[in-house]
Amino acid sequence: MVTIIDYGTGNIFSLCNAVKRAGLNYTVTSDKDIITKSSHVILPGVGEASAVMREIKKRGLEEVIKGLKVPVLGICIGMQVLCSYSEEGDTESLSVFPERVIKLRGDNIKIPHMGWNRVYGTDNPLFNELENGEWFYFVHSFAPERGVSTISTTNYGVEFSSTLNKDNFYGTQFHPEKSGVAGERFLMNFLTMNTLK
Amino acid sequence: MVAKRIIPCLDVHEGETVKGVNFVNLRVMGDPVEMGRMYSQQGADELVYLDISATNQGRGTFLSLVRKVADTLNIPFTVGGGISTADDASRLLDSGADKISLNSAALKDPTLIEKVAARYGSQFVVVAIDAKLLENSWRVMSNGGRNSAHRELFEWANEAESRGAGEILFTSMDNDGTKKGFAVDTLAKLCNQLSIPVIASGGAGKMEHFSELFLNSGADAALAASVFHEGTLPISSLKKHLSSCGVPVRIV
Predict the structure, then answer these.
(1) How far is CA A72 from CA A57, A66, A165, in A?
(2) Looking at chain B, which runs of residues are DSSP E strands?
(3) Residue B192 CA to chain centroid, in angstroms?
(4) Residue A126: pLDDT band by 50, 70, 90 thresholds?
(5) What residue numbers bound the domain in which A115 lies?
């Protein structure tokens, strides 16, 4: 069973539909027992960093998430809270990834970064059967800096980490659930990963 | 850099996709859900669904349609038409819409833009502006182009941005339905004044209109309806043409 963690903010309709279209059963919950017994865990991409961290703490999920041994995918803000810190709301985060999340900066760029952009440097099982430079859909104003967990980068004013990986934890700045066929492939690559060897 | 976006627009009336010229003489084009799925497969980057029915029954039909679209579609979509309150916007978000487009209601009460942006973020709020050139001034029209809003295009677009709009969807009513090209000069001026993305609408007839738009105006996206609905301009061919002209586009 796939678990989508419920932190009580925003709309996860499209993500649920994408998992459903992939032919998998899912549950949306913040129940610790269900989360720890899942085959795959997704931290969805809605909300603002400090609000999401507050909800995670309120539900007592910090250690539960950090201790997961199954494949975990954080999407957008769901990835950002897995990083060490976010400039958004000056937020200390879960520190699964050592990278910091900073506001996108650059000359002549429109914020938020909204639309389709290319993802480069993708030698990771998450990108099986996807091309280097594939287009994915982004909507965000903050992003992780490049660091040891970076497995792909995207350019928007600066080069930022568009995906991260450390052990069984994965994060993506783009929205695979909104990224057409490439996004479906990406999600499928995650959802068919085996539990940590 | 981000790709320039191609956005088919589906005007929905009582559950059917329709198309009119200059907002009148509606013709039925097909099933909105199926058409959306097809456009996504062809390489559309985003879709816009506009509810042009004016009845409560029509609004209910539209809401259930939005749910079906969200079930089916794997790319982002914007919904608009008849959104009068922040609660209307919430209902659409809860039904799976990625963005909402405000038009007449924002003209009537500009604070609606702030209210919706505060609740869900600017990226959720598109402000649609229909305007036509009258005595050397671009006048904003409301209620599907029927009434003058007594506002000027550039001034209203700037206000919408400062109130929290995430994008401006500008339709030139003078170009809409003519298939003679976009209002490129006006769009260039608009893009120059704004720091949020601009979606160009009205006038698309052939591929060259799109390349002309993207090469000369700074527009971030182009929206069109009949050229896609009638099949005269397949999205895959359009994208190849744009790419060969040096316009960054996502080819699927």
Answers:
(1) 18, 10, 10
(2) 5-13, 16-21, 24-30, 47-51, 77-80, 99-102, 125-134, 137-142, 147-152, 167-172, 198-201, 221-224
(3) 19
(4) very high
(5) 2-191
Within 57-116 of B, beta carbons closer than 8 Å to A belong to 70-71, 74-76, 93-96, 98
Q: What is the DSSP string of A28-66?
A: EE--HHHHHT-SEEEE---S-HHHHHHHHHHTT-HHHHH
A179 contact B CB<8A: yes
pLDDT tens digit string along A147-185? 999 999 999 989 999 999 999 999 999 999 999 999 999
Residue B137 near residue B114 (C-beta atoms within 8 A) = no
B247 touches A: beta carbon within 8 Å: no
Q: How many CA atoms lie within 13 A of B22 on its CB side?
A: 5
Catalytic status, residue A83:
no
Q: Has residue A49 been placed in a domain?
A: yes
With vertex at residue B80, the alpha carbon angle to CA B77 and CA B85, rounded to the nearest 5 degrees, is 125
CATH 3.20.20.70 corresponds to the domain B5-244: yes
Residue A196 lies in a domain: no
CA distance A130 to A122: 8
Total number of domains constituting chain A: 1
Using CA atoms, how far apart are residues B179 and B210, in angstroms rounded to an integer? 11
CB-CB contact of B78 with B100 (8 Å): yes
pLDDT digit string (tens) for B92-143? 988 999 999 999 999 999 999 999 998 888 889 999 999 999 999 999 999 8
pLDDT on residue A8: 78
Residue of B75, B125, B220 to mutate, testing the A interface (most A Cβ within 10 Å of its Cβ) = B75
Enter the ipTM.
Answer: 0.90
* Residue A103, burial from CB neighbour count under 10 angstroms (0-12, 13-18, 19+): exposed
A131 contacts in chain B (CB < 8 Å): none
pTM (2 d.p.): 0.93
pLDDT tens for A103-124 read: 998 888 888 899 999 999 878 9
| A78 occurs within a structural domain | yes
Paired sense of beta strands B125-134 and B99-102, if any: parallel
